[in-house]
UniProtKB/TrEMBL annotation, chain A:
Belongs to the binding-protein-dependent transport system permease family. CysTW subfamily. The lineage of its organism: Bacteria, Pseudomonadati, Pseudomonadota, Alphaproteobacteria, Rhodobacterales. One of its GO terms (cellular component) is plasma membrane. Pfam families: BPD_transp_1. The chain crosses the membrane at residues 12-38, 80-100, 112-136, 156-176, 207-226, 257-279. This is Spermidine/putrescine transport system permease protein. It is found in: Cell membrane. GO terms for biological process: transmembrane transport. It comes from Sulfitobacter delicatus. InterPro entries: Bact_Polyamine_Transport (IPR051789), MetI-like (IPR000515), MetI-like_sf (IPR035906). Its main location: membrane. Residues 76-276 form the ABC transmembrane type-1 domain. It is a multi-pass membrane protein. Keywords: Cell membrane, Membrane, Transmembrane, Transmembrane helix, Transport.
Automatic annotation (TrEMBL), chain B:
Keywords: Cell membrane, Membrane, Transmembrane, Transmembrane helix, Transport. Coiled coil: none annotated. The lineage of its organism: Bacteria, Pseudomonadati, Pseudomonadota, Alphaproteobacteria, Rhodobacterales. This is Spermidine/putrescine transport system permease protein. PANTHER family: INNER MEMBRANE ABC TRANSPORTER PERMEASE PROTEIN YDCU-RELATED, INNER MEMBRANE ABC TRANSPORTER PERMEASE PROTEIN YDCU-RELATED-RELATED. PROSITE patterns: ABC_TM1 (PS50928). One of its GO terms (cellular component) is plasma membrane. Belongs to the binding-protein-dependent transport system permease family. CysTW subfamily. Residues 65-272 form the ABC transmembrane type-1 domain.
TrEMBL record, chain C:
Residues 5-235 form the ABC transporter domain. This is Spermidine/putrescine transport system ATP-binding protein. The lineage of its organism: Bacteria, Pseudomonadati, Pseudomonadota, Alphaproteobacteria, Rhodobacterales. GO terms for cellular component: ATP-binding cassette (ABC) transporter complex. Gene3D superfamilies: 2.40.50.100, P-loop containing nucleotide triphosphate hydrolases. Keywords: ATP-binding, Nucleotide-binding, Transport. It comes from the Bacteria. Pfam families: ABC_tran (PF00005), TOBE_2 (PF08402). It comes from Sulfitobacter delicatus. GO terms for molecular function: ATP binding; ATP hydrolysis activity; transmembrane transporter activity.
Amino acid sequence: MIPTIPQSRSFRLVYGGYVALFFLYLALPLTVVAVFAFNDSQFPSLPWEGFTWNWFFGEERPQIGVFHERGILRSVGTSAFVALCVAVLSVSVGTTNAFLFNRYEFRGKGFLYVLMLLPLVIPGIVLGISILVFSSTLANGLWDLAQMDVQALRPGLLLVILGQFSFITTIATLVISARLQKFDRTLEEAALNLGADRLTAVRTITLPFLAPAMIGAVVVAFLMSFENFNTTLMLVGSDAPLTIAMFDRLKEGSTPLLNAVSLLLMLGSSLLALLVILFQRRG
Amino acid sequence: MRNQSRITFYLLLTPLVLWLGLLIIIPHIDMLLISLRERISFGVYETSLSQYEKALTEPLYLRTFWRTAVMSVLATVITLLIAFPVAYYIAKMAKGRLQQVLFLLCLIPFYVSELVRTFGWMILLRETGLISSLLQWVGLADQPVELLYTDATMMVGLVYTSMLFMVVPLVTTLESLDDSVIEAGYDLGGSGFSVLREIIIPHAMPGIVSGCIVVFMLSLGNYLTPTMLGGKDSLWFTEMIYNQFIVRSNWELGAAFGFMLLVLSSVIVWGMLRLTGRTLKETMG
Amino acid sequence: MTPDLECVDLVKRFDDTAAVNNVSFSVPPGSFFSILGPSGCGKTTIMRMIAGFLDPTSGDIRIKGGSVLDTPPNKRPVNMVFQHLALFPMMTIAENIGYGLRRRGMAKGEIGRKVDEALDRIGLPGIGARKVDELSGGQKQRVAIARCMVLEPDVLLLDEPLGALDLKLREHMKVELKALQAAFDTTFVYITHDQSEALVMSDQIAVMNAGQFEQVGTGQDLYYRPDTPFVAGFIGESNRWKGRIERAEGGNLQLRTDSGLAIRATGMGLSEGARAEIFVRPESIRLAASADALAEFDNQLTGTVTSLLFNGAASRVLVRDTAGETLEVTLPQSGEFASLKRGDAIHIGWGAGQASCFEAS
């Protein structure tokens, strides 16, 4: 069943057809979302009422476009802020983790490594509620102790950031570790030999080598945070990130406005992904 | 360890310990403690197993729990069956450019939020949706057909959502199988079926296991797809957690539910690893 | 007797290039046949066509007299030892060897017996339960052969199986492979780019270049009587000159090289005035302290030693002749020249029969 093994024509046709169907299945929902962003109607469904840009640029009711819809724009801003914080935090910790696991032998290393992987096998909702429960225990404790009401420990952006950070860090650690493992340590030794101290050697030799993986991890972390729903749902306060805002609207009934937002999301994330691919090809 | 190296070690260890301690371990212990208490009156709690008793005796809770487990296993199996031939095609049949393009095409849908993907299926499958219109146009239906809010629809959505996490590990392991090993299988008299069973699938086992674990986890923990695509009867366990926490503010019962979900997923992941004799480190790392 | 394997006018084109261009040969039963050539000459393509992993563009492949073109690879009575062996890593040694037997639906007990027998045969009894990666390189080699031989194929194909081994083991495996072939009494078709492997093991060798066979013959044929300049240059080492033929009488030639040296040589089908290439092996040149000792040789030169390349039995002397060219001459290990050193004057000579001459291309 590889090209060098002769196969009957009909088998090859059926197989090829199956694969084509699979890709149709993959593309169908996204295509439909994209196309109906241009429907000149209140509903993202048939009949097709004609082509319009209103769901992007419309200024008056009933067709207010994405770029004039305050609520959506604000939630995009919130999402971007959260995603940026999560990306920076998780890649920083991911990098230190990678160095720790790559460079040191210590008691309990294997155990810590498995612990580090755990967030991947904990359902997002459970991660969310455990952090919710713990932060409220903390907040209540502080109130009982000192009559202090720490708003940051109540559902809100800080908890959303921490919640997403708690599992995205594992992914960042894995991505960066994979690259660090390929690093030839004699390069660092050569730098030491040529007069650099340890920190300088890491900064001038190892970190540039890790850069592609770190940038890749930043983008992946950003996208994962931007798209996250489950953990965010449990921790969100009054400032809703985009996915939550869209979810609330979707429950009320959808207009092509949501299609327009979705299309912009698709374009945005494809662009980011493309940039990473281009960057890594050059590197 | 020399002094400087020791300091660096602790500097690197600190963020890891803070992260795992404050965001993973202690919160889960706290969740367990909360699930083990019973509210007597305002501000007065007592340690008891009553939450679990409630969860295990109330038929709705128990039924939803098992339904979620069984449906997640089913979604995993279906995803594997659909993904394997595609992954094999990408890894072994397609060559050069085509291979790269197909692989990238597989990834694209997953750069898009799960919400958008679910929304797409809603547009396609609802009563006024595309498929319904298509069926009427072809003449297979004489009035709008509601395809949403059934278990089958939910399954379509679950499988779609986790497809990538099955295809990627499968492609990676299948690619590492040397063509000449497959050729040797044929050369020694093997047929397509026996080569698949004795050579290809055993080789792909690590990919199958890690794909299945991730897909199972994602299905079990999914909230959006069952909520948006599933019907009134297809309640998902995550929805019950959400209801207890956010709608009813009954955190004790919600925490117990959360813990049950955690135990369920751990048991199944552990079982899958045991069955195939692999470790979590090999599979996920 | 019908040959075990016969290829007739075999052609394989990839797009515009012919990887295999009209190759015909036949391999008699029980012999060790090698195809020797540089990488990219098309030898792997021939092998894969015989195994059934490639369809020839035209021509025929016959095994025991019957064409196998329409037989899929899993039904052909040939088995192959792959370049990197392709042992199944997910199975034990016994499962690997029994794989083909299971495909034939043989009973379990019978398979176990045959596998044990094969393990005895390759001198590795009792390792059946081990995993593939617990074996050494040489042991894997033997298991790969046993895995094919239990199926009693008409022809065993071997695709450079020694390439991955280190030098010492490779030397050892050459002898062992030859012995295994004799023990199994099966036709082996062996492809390699390593001439020493081909020369040591083969009954017949085909030298292949650019999609075609240059010459088919025994090792001695190729070494002593090369048909083409490619074979003369590819097998063994040679001192080479280019020159013009001044006199031709039958096979005996008198040439003058471009550097001005007069050389007597032998070669067929060459006429006066033609451009030619001359090949003389380092080991056919005799060293002598005085010109008298070389009286019997057609070609005699004097020169100075410019370098001694010590390499045990394969030691060489570099000699600069009067025309300023450097020749490689084998240094006899009889002790006669033990005191030879750089700068010494030396006489060298060789017979016309040892200088092969071909028309220059």
